UniProtKB/TrEMBL annotation, chain A:
<dbReference type="Pfam" id="PF06159">
    <property type="entry name" value="TRAPPC13_N"/>
</dbReference>
<dbReference type="GO" id="GO:1990072">
    <property type="term" value="C:TRAPPIII protein complex"/>
</dbReference>
<feature type="domain" description="Trafficking protein particle complex subunit 13 middle">
    <location>
        <begin position="209"/>
        <end position="330"/>
    </location>
</feature>
<dbReference type="InterPro" id="IPR055429">
    <property type="entry name" value="TRAPPC13_M"/>
</dbReference>
<dbReference type="InterPro" id="IPR055427">
    <property type="entry name" value="TRAPPC13_N"/>
</dbReference>
<dbReference type="Pfam" id="PF23647">
    <property type="entry name" value="TRAPPC13_M"/>
</dbReference>
<dbReference type="InterPro" id="IPR010378">
    <property type="entry name" value="TRAPPC13"/>
</dbReference>
<feature type="domain" description="Trafficking protein particle complex subunit 13 N-terminal">
    <location>
        <begin position="20"/>
        <end position="205"/>
    </location>
</feature>
<protein>
    <recommendedName>
        <fullName>Trafficking protein particle complex subunit 13-like</fullName>
    </recommendedName>
</protein>
Automatic annotation (TrEMBL), chain B:
<feature type="region of interest" description="Disordered">
    <location>
        <begin position="1"/>
        <end position="20"/>
    </location>
</feature>
<dbReference type="Pfam" id="PF13181">
    <property type="entry name" value="TPR_8"/>
</dbReference>
<dbReference type="InterPro" id="IPR011990">
    <property type="entry name" value="TPR-like_helical_dom_sf"/>
</dbReference>
<dbReference type="InterPro" id="IPR019734">
    <property type="entry name" value="TPR_rpt"/>
</dbReference>
<protein>
    <recommendedName>
        <fullName>Trafficking protein particle complex subunit 12</fullName>
    </recommendedName>
</protein>
Length: 483, 362
């Protein structure tokens, strides 16, 4: 009973002319492995004497030289025994990792992103020389037929009886599903007949990984969580997992700092714990922080689907055998278009009671139409005083009460031509409504703009008004609402 | 059977020694235990079946007088059965012993035989086999649990011992840990292996062989950068006056780096340097053959292995090398059963009893 070893399933078809002088032998040449086998080898002292015999000083001093005379020395060429199969030589021998390499013993599994490498040997098992051999090797998949080797331009002149012609082919696996390695030979046999030998070796390509992503947006930052799951039969060493952001995006990977009990400065270089994903369902998570590198002025944000980028994954298995895959484009959540943005520009770090302070806000209108009015109100608990909020660029005023606490809302509009007058009347009205003298902090900008054109007389009236009344505002919570 | 004549042991004024050869119980192995010299000789030749016969005979004819002799013979018996892959019988034999910590396995229980000695007379290998055998019988978890328990046992002994005895127990701790690493490695439990090797290195940081093995594990995982850095560490430890073994280690490590980079020509060159320095470096020989194959040179790779078997059979004859050679035969010959049978017949004549001939896949 002969086993197929590492040969793929072979189905050879011969022509009606009969048997062939040539035959293909194929062996998958993935990387070899280190042979691991904890050996049945001992230290002589653990076999021929009791474990506590060395507590006896007489025994200890006499036994040691006796044992030394029988120690295993593998480089002694005069020793023709199998001593090294019985006795240990180095303290690490019990590990069974001698660095002896062993050839792949079975075809194994092959995955998308890996490289298929095969040794192909064509043998002449007949008693006659064959001539003008044209050899071809191709990979046939569901979608295409790829040529790996073709000696048509320079055919092998002859293969003698019992001789052989060898070659090694490589193919980056980029498709899933059934693949066939098709080896064909066109040759003149011993009788001068032109013969054609095709041989087929089938194998299946499976998917090694699946990647699940989650996108979360927190304020200005988008977080991308990628979970890689290993569907292969080996542990995968994640050599490189890089997120390639799309245009206008920048990405940084977020990693936890791990502390290891045994690492010290001496060992830290050789001991960086590798990212290893366990075979058959193991997972590893990656977290990326993405920011839109937006340019200040050109603001119009693209609505709809939002391409963030893609993941490039390189893994390695046995002895560094590489595999490479790229994900599809990863989509983020569509950016919700905000018509209006409110930013707090400046707020004092210390606020004193009964002293007014100013709060700088920036209100940006992203649309191309007029929006308003902008209302600012106070959320209040506890105090029963009337409070007022005053805003630069006063436009309208409204009165409302929350929890039966009267307070005034003054709101801003745009370009009111009766700006100053309006202000005057509003303030008068306000003052007549209140019963408490408070100080008024007017943060009015009398700029040279149409909205604020007022006569000198009006201006003087306003200033008098300001000096007469003093309003103070105590801010606790500022609640801004806008349409 | 007369024991071999032996020169008088050197007497060192510092350590107490017995200078009278007539009462020296450590002059030769036979003085320690009945016919131990022969048992040892058979073991080094791999004649495990003969050992089974010998043990049976000694027991039947009551050659064994002292308690420790029974234990030594039992240990050889269990090992022989294990070597012959008769693990169930080995386990049964081991079970005939009671609890290994029982009083009748202590020296002080027999003061007239061992007047100056106290402690356990159980050979440590029996404890090790007690942990190993379940793994060989397919009960991996039980075996591993026993190994970890054995490690605790060794560590508790280490706390009480010092001097020569302390060193021996320290060596045993390493023995057990290395065995554990080996069993985790077989199951590809790489993270545990890395942690355990780090532990070993913390008390033995300049051990080039151990660091090389760390490198091999890193390479097996696929972490090539870490492997290279481990090998660089080893290279920095070796100088021109270093032993051949160490120099070859550096060359073989370099060859592995070339190999994973697919530079098989340079790898072959490194291995040839090793073989020139030490013609019995079977790892270099085997790995060189593999590189030749990846260089599309199947005929030469076969030649390298065949000539090694012919030239240095006692070192070259190992199951891995034979597996590789048979794989090469299967690729090279359409009718490979003939050539494999020739190999198999030669092995049957030359190999030790414990050689696993299923590796020829005939």
């Amino acid at each position: 009973m002969s086993s197929t070893g590492s040969q793929a399933q072979s189905q050879s078809q011969s022509q009606s002319q009969g048997s062939h002088s040539l035959a293909f032998r194929v062996m998958r040449l993935c990387k070899p492995s280190f042979h691991v086998d904890p050996p049945l080898r001992l230290d002589l002292s653990d076999l021929i004497a009791g474990e506590d015999i060395f507590d006896d000083p007489i025994a200890a001093s006499n036994l040691t030289p006796l044992l030394d005379r029988h120690v295993a020395n593998p480089t002694d060429s005069s020793d023709l025994s199998y001593r090294t199969r019985f006795l240990l030589h180095d303290s690490s021998d019990p590990m069974g990792l001698s660095s002896l390499l062993v050839l792949p013993q079975s075809f194994g599994a092959i995955y998308l992103g890996e490289t298929f490498c095969s040794y192909i040997s064509i043998n002449n098992s007949s008693n006659f020389e064959v001539k003008d051999v044209i050899i071809k090797a191709e990979i046939q998949t569901e979608r295409q037929r790829l040529l790996l080797l073709d000696t048509s331009k320079s055919p092998v002149e002859s293969i003698r009886a019992g001789g052989r012609y060898d070659f090694i082919v490589e193919h980056d696996v980029k498709e899933l599903g059934p693949h066939t390695l098709v080896c064909t030979a066109l040759y003149n046999d011993g009788e001068g007949e032109r013969k054609y030998l095709p041989q087929f070796f089938k194998f299946m390509v499976a998917n090694p990984l699946s990647v699940r992503t989650k996108v979360r947006v927190v304020k200005e930052t988008t977080y991308l969580e990628a979970c890689i799951e290993n569907h292969t039969k080996s542990n995968l060493f994640m050599d490189q997992v890089d997120f390639e952001p799309a245009q206008h995006w920048s990405a940084t990977i977020l990693q936890a700092n791990e502390h290891h009990p045994h690492s010290n400065s001496q060992t830290r270089d050789t001991f960086k714990p590798p990212i290893l994903i366990r075979s058959g369902g193991g997972i590893h998570n990656y977290l990326y922080q993405l920011k839109l590198s937006s340019h200040g002025s050109t603001q119009m944000k693209v609505e709809g689907s939002n391409i963030l980028g893609k993941l490039q994954i390189t893994w390695r298995t046995n002895l560094g055998e590489p595999g490479r895959l790229q994900t599809q484009q990863i989509l983020g959540t569509p950016i919700t278009r905000k018509d209006i943005e409110l930013h707090v520009l400046e707020v004092p770090s210390v606020i004193n009671l009964e002293r007014s302070f100013s709060l700088h806000l920036k209100l940006t209108n992203h649309t191309d139409r007029e929006l308003g009015p902008f209302e600012v109100s106070l959320l209040y608990d506890g105090l029963h005083e009337e409070k007022v909020v005053m805003i630069n660029g006063l436009q309208t005023m409204a009165h409302c009460s929350i929890n039966d606490l009267p307070f005034w809302i003054l709101s801003i509009g745009k370009h009111s031509s009766e700006y100053a007058n309006e202000l005057y009347h509003r303030l008068q009205h306000l003052v007549s409504q209140t019963s408490i003298w408070t100080s008024l902090l007017l943060n009015l900008e009398f700029r040279e703009s149409p909205a604020l054109q007022c006569s000198t007389q009006e201006r003087r009236n306003l200033i008098t008004l300001c000096q007469t009344w003093r309003f103070s505002w105590i801010w606790t919570n500022l609640l801004a609402s806008f349409a | 059977m007369a024991s071999d004549p032996d020169p008088e042991p050197q007497s060192d004024p510092q350590t107490p020694t017995i200078t009278d050869p007539l009462t020296n119980e450590f002059a030769t192995l036979n003085d320690l235990t009945h016919d131990l010299d022969s048992l040892h000789e058979l073991a080094t030749r791999g004649s495990w079946r003969s050992i089974l016969d010998k043990v049976a005979r000694a027991r039947a004819l009551s050659f064994l007088r002292k308690p420790h002799e029974h234990l030594t013979y039992l240990a050889f018996h269990v090992i022989a059965l294990s070597k012959l892959r008769r693990f169930a019988e080995a386990s049964a034999e081991l079970d005939t012993l009671d609890d290994l910590d029982a009083a009748h396995y202590l020296y002080q229980t027999y003061p007239n035989i061992y007047p100056t000695r106290s402690g356990s007379m159980v050979p440590f290998s029996l404890r090790w086999l007690h942990a190993l055998l379940p793994i060989k019988l397919g009960k991996r978890q039980l075996g591993l649990d026993r190994f970890y328990a054995l490690l605790d046992f060794v560590r508790s002994k280490l706390e009480l011992k010092d001097g020569i005895s302390g060193n021996i127990w320290k060596k045993r701790e390493g023995f057990v840990i290395n065995s554990i690493i080996g069993h985790h490695l077989t199951n590809k439990e790489f993270s545990v292996c890395l942690n355990l090797i780090q532990f070993l290195l913390s008390s033995d940081p300049s051990n080039p062989i151990l660091i090389s093995k760390l490198g091999y594990i890193q390479m097996q995982i696929g972490d090539l950068e870490s492997a290279k850095s481990s090998f660089n560490r080893v290279e920095s430890m070796v100088e021109t006056e270093s032993e051949v073994e160490l120099k070859n280690l550096v060359n073989r490590n370099k060859a592995m780096v070339y190999m994973v980079g697919k530079d098989y020509v340079s790898a072959v060159r490194e291995y040839e340097e090793c073989i020139e320095r030490d013609p019995m470096d079977v790892v270099a020989i085997n790995n060189k053959a593999i590189c030749l194959m990846y260089l599309r040179d199947l005929p030469d790779s076969i030649k390298v292995l065949e000539s090694a078997l012919e030239r240095v059979p006692t070192v070259a004859l190992n199951e891995t090398l034979v597996v590789n050679l048979c794989s090469m035969y299967e690729l090279a010959y359409v009718n490979h059963s003939d050539i494999k049978r020739t190999l198999s017949n030669w092995i049957a004549r030359v190999a030790p009893d414990d050689f696993d001939s299923s590796c020829t896949r005939i």
